Amino acid sequence: MLQFPAWKVFLVMAVAIWGTLIALPNAVNMSGAPSWVPQKPVNLGLDLRGGVYLEMEIRPEEVIEGRLDVFARDVRGALARTESAPLIPHTIDITGRVMTVTLNRPDASGNFPIEDAIARINRVNTPLEGGIAGGRTFEVAQTRADTLTITVPQNSESLMMADALAKTRTIVSRRIDPDGVAEVSITPSGANRLILEAPGEPNPQRLKDLLNRDGRMTFNIVDDSPSALAAAEAGVVKPGYHLLTGPETGPLLVRTIPEIVGSDIATASQGNDEANRPQINFRLNSNGARKFFETTSANTNKRFAIVLDDVIMSAPNINEPIAGGNVRITGSFTIEQAQDLAAIIAAGEMPAKVQFLDQRSVSSTLGEDSIEAGFRAAIIGLVLVGGLMVLAYGMMGVFAVISLALNIVLVFTTLSLLNATLTLPGIAGIVLTIGMSVDGNVLVFERIREEQKAGRSVWTAVQAGYERALVTILDANITGLFSAAVLYVMGSGPVKGFAVTLALGILTSMFTSMVFTRMLTVFWMKLTKPKRFAI
Fold first, then answer.
1. What is the pLDDT of residue 98?
2. Contact, 251 vs 235, CB < 8 A?
3. Which of 31, 79, 124, 305 could be joined to 315 by an S-S link, Cβ 3.0–4.6 Å?
4. Contact 153, 139 (CB under 8 A)
């Protein structure tokens, strides 16, 4: 128990030195240090660094309507002419949570082919991921002789909302932090809400502008007929079409159901045109490139509109079939506008528009005050605990104070390695760790004191103290870890921060109290050969 061979000493000292190096950027500026030395301190949370807090939600009605919009393309394809099935002429209308499919032409016997339409629609009505195997996403029902209604059942709605929230979280992260280097926190809150914390962000309106855009990119065929456009401008819009406009075009009559959608886009980036003006370049994935080629092949000499959030960004003429899937949008963009639009397009379409429920800006001055108060509390706690340990246990108390300092260093080491964010409750957890981390040493020292009173020698008393206190120390620390785990699982953001630092402090204190302090004690005993500990 008290033997420390060379390899064990080397391992313990290596952990202590390595941990100190990792934690060092939190105390001193390491910008001029060699590249192999860490240079980044622990991430600071919103309450310590200042920044922006946004609470947002997505509404189920919009998620369902968006899903119906996507399914409308599948319905149109299912009812189209194929080699083995005739065309079923129809019109599609989506109002809120209901899609209405109206058949336009009866068959030779005067009946509408409702059963055939239902069968063909149900072939593309596959279950959602996580749904019942063999089930269907949408309910398809006949309401009149020529009409079908398509609705979303409750179980599908729950799956859609869970998927939409996960996708929204990913898209928000990509828009706010496209390079993945910012310290942005996005956490779910309930079934349809997200909380965004962006430490160090000075401009909340920029974040809201980035997130206010749906990011719905579509390619829609344009009806160039002057009579149809004039009628639409007069209020009589051709069925299946609607009027849109844009900064570079006048009003255009575009087909409601798009040919290409945002999920067909693989990448997007800001670039420059031949005149070195900012433009947006994007590339379609293999499926999108195929559909784009088929669309441009079937609509030569027509125009198509590239639409972003119901605004026509560009409306070029289709001169010939376009292969390859490389597309660009030119216009009067600034570099920042082109970069933001590229980030929106690359991140993908929001499942539904986010609604902002709460916005707060936290001053960096407030964060500095919190850091200063937390640092002051930690120093006072360290001095008081250290002083009491030295007064109560003499040299052994000095070893406990050294181990306590190493314990705090190792807490910051693990925070850095885990890329965790330190919050004000996290500082409270560190302050609590200062008191808890000496608990193991107190148990050992008290046990040594009892063994010495029983007449044992120094060496046997120390060995018995560590051996007999181990079970009690393990029991206390495991109980503490369970408590921290419950706080982490059941708690919200601030409580989670407290639980993380508390758990890390417990784990590192096991190493410092049972290994590092014991090693220092053994070295001192070998060096001074004391007859008795003054404890």
1. 93
2. no
3. 305
4. yes
Residue 493 CA to residue 255 CA, distance in Å, equals 46
Q: Please tell me the distance from the alpha carbon of residue 507 to that of residue 399, in angstroms, as a whole number.
A: 19
Model confidence at 280, pLDDT cuts 50, 70, 90, reads: confident
- In this predicted structure, what is the pLDDT of residue 367? 65
Phi-psi region of 4 (alpha: psi -120 to 50; beta: other; left: phi over 0): beta
Angle between helices 439-453 and 458-490 (to 10 degrees): 150
Q: Which amino acid is at 175?
A: R
Question: CA–CA separation, 360 vs 493, rounded Å?
Answer: 16
pLDDT digits 0-9 by tens, 460-499: 888 888 888 888 888 888 998 999 899 888 876 667 778 8
Half-sphere exposure for 45 (CA within 13 Å, toward CB) = 20
> What would the DSSP string read from start to end of 250-271?
EEEEEESS-SB-GGGEEEEEEE
Contacts of 286 (CB under 8 A, 6+ apart): 325
* Tokens matching residue 150: 């398509």
Residue that has been written with the tokens 């950027």 in this structure: 25
- What is the SS3 assignment for 322? coil
- The rounded distance, in Å, linking the Cα atoms of 118 and 78 is 10
- Structural tokens at position 210: 């980035």
d(CA 45, CA 420): 9
Helices (H) then strands (E): counts for the chain: 16, 18
Residues 495, 501, 506, CA angle at the centre, nearest 5°? 120
* H/E element, 451: helix 439-453
**pLDDT tens-digit readout, 357-375:** 988 877 766 667 777 887 8
Query: CA 28, CA 33: separation in Å to the nearest integer?
Result: 11
Range from 103-107, 263-267, 310-314 carrying the lowest mean pLDDT: 263-267
Helices 493-511, 424-437: axis angle to 10 degrees equals 30
Domains of the chain by start residue, with CATH: 6-50+363-528 (1.20.1640.10), 60-157 (3.40.109), 213-359 (3.30.1360.200)
Nearest to 292 by CA among 253, 327, 252, 254: 327
CA distance 413 to 411: 5
Give the other-Cβ count within 10 Å of 421's Cβ.
22
pTM over 0.90: no
Is residue 174 predicted with pLDDT exceeding 60?
yes
